Amino acid sequence: MTSVRSRSLIVLVAMVALVACKKEGAGDASDLPAELRPHPAQGDPSKLAVPALFASIPADTPYLLASLEGPPTELWARMKPAFQPLIDKAAATWQAKRSQSDGDGPDKLLDAVLSEMDGKWSQAGIESLGFSAQPRFAIYGLGLQPVVVRMAVKDGKAVRATIERIAAKAGKQLPPALAQGGRSYWQHADGDGTTIVISIADNELIAAVGKADDVAAKLGLILGVDKPARNMADGALVKQLMGRHGFGGQLIGFADTRQLAGKAVEAAGAPPSPACTGELDRLSAKLPHLVFGYSELSASRLAGGFVVEMAPELVTEMRALKTEIPGLGAALSGHPLFALAAAIDLPRAQQLGAAAAGNLQQLG
User: Fold this and answer.
1) How confident is the model at residue 236 (pLDDT cuts 50, 70, 90)?
2) Angstrom distance (rounded) from CA 75 to CA 123
3) Is residue 280 a contact partner of residue 272, using CB atoms and an 8 Å limit?
4) How buried is residue 295: exposed, middle or buried, by Cβ count under 10 Å (0-12/13-18/19+)?
5) pLDDT score for 26
6) Could you tell me the strand order of the sheet in which 289-297 lies?
7) Which residue of 92, 185, 240, 327 is surrounded by the most CB atoms within 10 Å?
8) Residue 289 pairs with which residues in a beta bridge?
9) What would the DSSP string read from start to end of 286-318?
10) What are the φ/ψ torsions at residue 300 (nearest 5 degrees)?
């Protein structure tokens, strides 16, 4: 319980410490470099088909990382020659290191995985294992945890056979398959009190990890036997974020600060009072979402961004922290291979910090 409360406090502090109470006029992104300004993504998010696995994602999940569409097929052709030398080098280095070890434990399992993947780092190779070269997937939380991964696969039976081959090569015995609601799954309990569940059903690979009691309580939702009362089957929020920030469907992720705060308080075992709930609503409205995604994923260009959504008055406060960096122009004039610079208006930052501290005190 102590560790849960500590994590809950960290989440709340991280959210509230960035928030100020002072209200001024709203700012915009007009003075940002062109590459950093919000712009429309390639394609129309509203026309994207939502994968069936989204019906298993609760509408109130506090975080999500997902793909609504696969990368272009030509990307595989470009990636293979680029990454194959790195893969070969890493494999050779690993084998050299392995020759000096006893060849057991996790090393043996990794050997089995590398052996199974040998010569299959391509679209055809990936699909021969039962997976899809254009995967649709989602990583999300049932509350703060368990963390659930759902991935659509090309052939569920082939994926199961791949897992069994890897286990055999590693000399590992798969745990006996269990069943619930007609769905079979493997379960492994770690010594630290966490449980891992893996299942293959309806051409979908499912994995989840979390505290043993929570995994047991939410097993029906994990396996898809039970469905959330409210789900994300329509993809409305994801499409809204994509359209707002110019991200495409290959990869989109978000963290919902209101849900994070609420689930953190819930996990701490302290139901919030109406006043506390109102305060959480007020503060989270100032910093509603953290959003990540790709704006372009093609054979010729990879571009993406990370966005912190903020209320207009908070944007104004943050913009006021900008200041000049003496000598930056000269430092960049020589076209350096890498350069990093940062500056902040300290007096204004102190004022913002004091306002954030006031919010923490008010929340308490």
Assistant:
1) very high
2) 10
3) yes
4) buried
5) 37
6) 178-180, 183-189, 194-201, 204-211, 147-152, 137-141, 63-66, 252-256, 289-297, 302-308
7) 185
8) 256
9) HS-EEEEEEEEESSS-EEEEEEE---HHHHHHH
10) -110, -15
- Among 283, 254, 269, CA closest to 141: 254
Average pLDDT over residues 252-262: 93
Query: Rounded to an integer, what distance in angstroms lies between the CA atom of residue 42 and that of residue 38?
Result: 13
What are the residues whose beta carbons fall under 8 Å from the beta carbon of 268, sequence distance 6 or more? 4, 5, 8
* Whether the Cβ atoms of residue 286 and residue 302 lie closer than 8 Å to each other: no
Residue 216 has pLDDT above 70, yes or no: yes
* pTM > 0.70: yes
What is residue 224's three-state secondary structure?
Answer: coil
**Cα distance between residue 71 and residue 104, in whole Å:** 37
Q: Which two tokens stand for residue 242?
A: 């994509």
CA distances from 159 to 201, 203, 309 (A): 11, 9, 39
Tokens of 155: 């052939």
Q: Judge whether residue 190 has pLDDT over 80.
A: yes
Question: What is the token pair recorded at 18?
Answer: 């960035």
The C-alpha angle 269, 275, 281, rounded to 5 degrees, equals 85
Question: What is the Cα Rg of the chain in Å?
Answer: 24
Q: What is the rounded distance in angstroms from the CA atom of residue 19 to the CA atom of residue 199? A: 41
> End-to-end distance of the chain based on CA atoms, in angstroms?
20
In whole numbers, what is the pLDDT of the chain averaged over residues?
Answer: 81
Q: How far is residue 307's CA from residue 166's CA, in Å, rounded to a whole number?
A: 39
Structure tokens at 53: 């696995």
CB 237, CB 252: distance < 8 Å: no
Amino acid letter, 178:
L
